[in-house]
Design a protein that fits this description.
The chain is an alpha+beta fold. It has ten helices and 15 strands.
Length: 334
């Protein structure tokens, strides 16, 4: 064996001995693979608000089945019949709650789920036009269940509920959460609307701290948000003034562009208050506006026909408002 070969063999043996000795002096390294399951939090550790500020996933297919249609919702309708007959239409639920479909006049859709509406259309077509028709209705865009977010949200404005049971916490998150810190108060105002769209009584009110709401430590975290709700996100100082603001303001809700509190000033009339709330939405029942007013502890209703003011020029119909009044604009039934 040559000197070069002996040198190479000795070098390899020395390197092996160094590696072997080093391994005995170091703790073994174990590689942890990422787990698909989140590690449970210790029982004494509450999740932080930042961790909790994640949206709850909505089961779109399931929520579509329970969603009740209303004005503005966009639908895709496929009608099939024998002999290869097929019609497709993209339609919108009109302000009066109906949909115009091929071969049919206006079909009432408001208050029905997509499946219920599909069955209704199939029965109408089978009665006069087609034999054993197949009707598939797909909800494309939800535009009828509106709520208004006001205050220190990252993105305040009008939002459309994505499910029948979307919770207050999730709606707050969809608006981007708060501007600035988490030390804020969430106030939900819900007009008490009766089955015919009339205002029954004073609105309901729910209040919760934002941190408690995000960590689900309050009952309000599980409150389903309903169409027409007005949600305020307020700083500590604003929240302390909220009770006084309700007394000193007029609440305008229903079919207006910007529902919420309108500051009261002497000479404020019902029409002016509605204009300050962004004016009427399409489909508003201008002839059935209602004012709820509390007098000596009793709630009275004052009915106003706005058409008499705007079309008939009857200024006496433009009722003067008082602090604490609630103005409600219902949806037209036709």
């Amino acid at each position: 064996m040559s000197n070069r070969a002996v040198f190479l063999l000795c070098s390899v043996m020395c390197l092996y001995l160094l590696i072997t000795c080093g391994c005995h002096n170091q703790a073994p390294v174990v590689e942890h693979l990422p787990s698909h399951e989140p590690e449970p939090l210790p029982s004494h550790t509450a999740p932080s608000p930042a961790t909790q500020m994640l949206p709850t996933t909505l089961n779109t297919e399931e929520s579509d089945r329970s969603y009740t249609l209303g004005p503005g919702d966009e639908l895709s309708v496929i009608i099939r019949g024998k002999g290869g007959f097929q019609k497709m239409a993209d339609v919108v639920v009109l302000p009066q709650g109906t949909v115009v479909l091929p071969m049919l006049d206006d079909v009432e859709a408001m208050g029905l789920t997509p499946d219920q509406f599909s069955s209704k259309v199939a029965k109408l077509l089978e009665k006069d036009y087609l034999v054993s028709p197949s009707v598939v209705v797909t909800l494309m865009k939800r535009r009828s269940h509106k709520v208004t977010l006001v205050g220190e949200f990252d993105a305040p404005g009008t939002y459309y509920l994505q499910a029948e049971t979307e919770l207050l916490r999730d709606v707050v998150i969809r608006a981007g959460g708060p501007k600035g810190g988490l030390d804020k108060t969430v106030v939900l105002i819900r007009p008490a609307v009766g089955p015919q769209g009339e205002l029954d009584s004073a609105p309901e009110r729910y209040t919760a701290g934002l941190i408690e709401l995000m960590t689900k430590h309050v009952k309000a975290a599980g409150i389903p948000v309903k169409a027409g709700d007005i949600i305020y996100l307020l700083s500590g100082e604003q929240a302390s003034e909220m009770g006084g603001k309700i007394i000193r303001s007029v609440l305008v809700s229903g079919q207006v562009r910007k529902p919420g509190f309108v500051p009261y000033s002497k000479g404020l009339t019902v029409l002016r208050a509605i204009l300050k709330a962004g004016n009427f939405l399409e489909g508003a029942a201008k002839s059935r506006v209602a004012i709820k007013r509390t007098i000596d502890g009793k709630v009275t209703t004052i009915k106003v026909n706005i058409n008499r003011i705007t079309e008939g020029g009857d200024k006496s119909a433009d009722v003067l408002l008082q602090p604490g009044d609630i103005v409600y604009v219902p949806r037209s039934l036709f």
